[in-house]
Amino acid sequence: MKRIIVCVKPVPDPKHWHKVSMDPVTMTLKRAGIPSIINPLDKHALEAALSVRDIRGGEVVLLSMAPPFATSNLKEGLAMGADRAVLLSDPAFAGSDTLATSLILAAGCQWIGDFDLVFLGNFSIDGSTAQVCSQLAEFLHLPNVMHVIDMKWQENDKIIIIQKIEQGYVKLEATLPVVLSVRKELNKPRYVPFTGILAAESKEIKVLSNEDLGVDSSSIGLEGSPTKMAGLELRRFERAKERLAGSIEEIVAKLADKIYQCNIS
Amino acid sequence: MSSNGCKGIWVFAEQRGGELHGVSLELLGKANELAQGIGCAVTAVLLGHNITSHAKTLVNHGADIVLVADDPLLKHYRVLPYSYVIEYLIKEYQPEVLLMGATAMGVELAPRVAAKLKTGLSAHCIDLKLDREGKLLQVVPGWEGGVIATIACPAHRPQMATVMPGIMRALSPTEKTGQIIEVKVSLTDKNLGPEVLEVKTEKPAGRPLEQAEIVVAGGWGVGNEEGWKTIEQLADVLGGSVGATRPAVDEGWVEEGQMIGQSGKTVRPTLYIAVGISGVMHHVVGMDQSKEIISINTDANADIFEVSDVIVVEDFKKVVPKLIKEIEARQKVCK
Fold it and tell me: What is the extent of the structural domain holding A204?
């Protein structure tokens, strides 16, 4: 195994999501003051990479496209055991949709070079599009498999992959290089050892701008993204909220009435 | 053959193992509604091997045209050959819109197709509208449903979206005539990616959760397996399906396939009964389109009540067993 790239996305910590507000003029979310964490599924992707390294050797490189604050998230990944990290950070990247993001990440993968595997989490908890795996693979001209819940190495360097689908699974045989996105069933991310935290301090986090990557500037950022935000609202719900009162028997009778009023055949 | 008829709204007709996925018919229903607004044709795109018989089903559910690519290499879905074929067809016919189900297959295939065409794609849409200029407004939940965004793709074609199964309504099938076009695509010189060794699917008993008219869902507040049996009994007596929140699945009371919410299924039944569910946003986003929502919870301040039509602040253990008896009694009277 030469090299394994793990794509890592810093996401706002869900514990603080109630603090999110919206700027009504720019239609953007104000997330100031909300700490970021590594997207939970990306830890499963990193665990997958570390387990491959454990048995087949090679180097595990973290790759992230994010503002400079993401170095703290990358440090956590390095503490978990990744060898080094590359952070793609440029104001020109801001506002990129999944297509533009995948283009930038593909350039990052090519900059790192000489890799056999790219791992991602199946989706991120903030955007939840689950689009980057396939789009990154397309831009790298590599095959990809999503929804990975198991993988086993064959003697001939092929991998048997189990892909979760509705009510079942697909068993695939893949050759390297390949791009894989993983579900949480695949593994249990290892705890960060104390020695890992110390070791992370001396591991490299290389920060690259688009000057280093040279992605066509008309294809990235808010301007270069084909999808545009046409509206954004914090979710509100309006329902009758009729509270049933009385004794249990009375409530039960009213409930049964309500159910029958739904006119379900 | 003129390709003009194919320029309109396309639906990817998903099949696996020769079985059409219900979402494809739902999307045809939505596509018909959108097409009426701008007066264009609805085309279904069907890929596979020995699947031509489905073309008629697609026509009867609202496809004016069905493009069929039948090839042994397309027998099992694989992202590379499927995306090659769809890319080829799109370049040939230049549709305005392409819709796919947000299924295991759709979420892998659609982004790959969009990347090949360098066009925009929105994910897991819960609603779609066309404005007067033919711009597709794609309504998507974000941040586990706490935010609703409307996405457009003004300058690139086709406008692509994946749509959650269970949200759109399929048309009732009627005998219709449509144009069925067989297309030939050469795949022999292409890298087709990983080989499919086996496809294993199990048919769930009864109606899929997404298609149930009544869903009885339980959460953490159900407490234990015994409590869960009560939920199942209520669903049973009402002829409905059982839904669950993440904590109930994590407790092992119920299969993950029954989970409703952002990372589970989206349901839109006529009646949704939420029992012992607190109502966190990532659950609510999967059920708030239900027609009538009844919630039972001991906590008068539970968030689920904010999205409920009918509220019962009580211990479900006192209410639900009696409700089951009451429904049974009324059913006897009706017979």
Answer: 3-224
- Tell me how many domains chain A contains: 1
Mean pLDDT lowest among A81-85, A86-90, B5-9, B166-170: B5-9
- In this structure, the strands spanning A59-65 and A36-38 are unpaired
CB atoms near residue B99 (< 10 Å): 31
CA-wise closest residue to A254 among B62, B49, B19, B309: B309
pLDDT digits (tens, 9 = 90+) for A222-255: 999 999 988 887 766 678 899 999 999 999 999 9
Please check whether residue A106 lies inside any domain of the structure. Answer: yes
Residue A246 inside a domain? The answer is: no
* Residues B179 and B264 reside in one and the same domain: no
Contact B310 A258 (CB under 8 A): yes
Which of A97, A168, A234 has its CB closest to that of B120?
A: A97
Chain B residues within 8 A of A239 when measuring between CB atoms: 293, 306-309
ipTM for this model: 0.89
Residue B230 lies in a domain: yes
Domain count, chain B: 2
- B163 with B27, same domain: the answer is yes
Distance from CA of B3 to the nearest CA of A (A): 25
Does residue A257 lie in a domain region? no
In a domain, B293, yes or no: yes
State the Cα–Cα distance between residues A147 and A181, nearest whole angstrom.
6
At A147, which CATH number?
3.40.50.620
pLDDT tens-digit profile of A81-136?
Answer: 999 999 999 999 999 999 999 999 999 999 999 999 999 999 998 877 899 999 99
Q: Is A32 helix (H, G, I), strand (E, B) or coil?
A: coil
| Residue A259 to residue B327, Cβ atoms within 8 A | yes
Residue B41 has a pLDDT of: 95
Among B24, B79, B84, B108, the residue to mutate for chain A (most A Cβ within 10 A): B108
- Six-digit token string for B136: 């597709």
A 10 A CB-CB count for B117 gives 20
Do residues B209 and B267 touch, judged by C-beta distance below 8 A? yes
Query: Nearest chain A Cα to B124, which residue?
Result: A129
Query: Are B197 and A160 an interchain contact pair (Cβ–Cβ within 8 Å)?
Result: yes
User: Above 90 in pLDDT, residue B31?
Assistant: yes
Which range of residues forms the domain containing residue B300?
A: 209-334
d(CA A30, nearest CA chain B) in Å: 12
Is residue A98, in this structure, part of any structural domain at all? Answer: yes
Nearest-by-Cβ selection for B111 from A98, A164, A233: A98
DSSP H/E element including B236: helix B225-238
Of A127, A132, A172, the CB nearest to B197: A172
Q: Does B288 touch chain A (CB under 8 A)?
A: yes
Q: Pick the residue from chain A with its C-alpha nearest to B104.
A: A165
The residue among B312, B22, B76 whose CA lies nearest residue B198 is B76
* Residues belonging to chain B: 335
CB spacing of B323 vs A232 below 8 angstroms: no
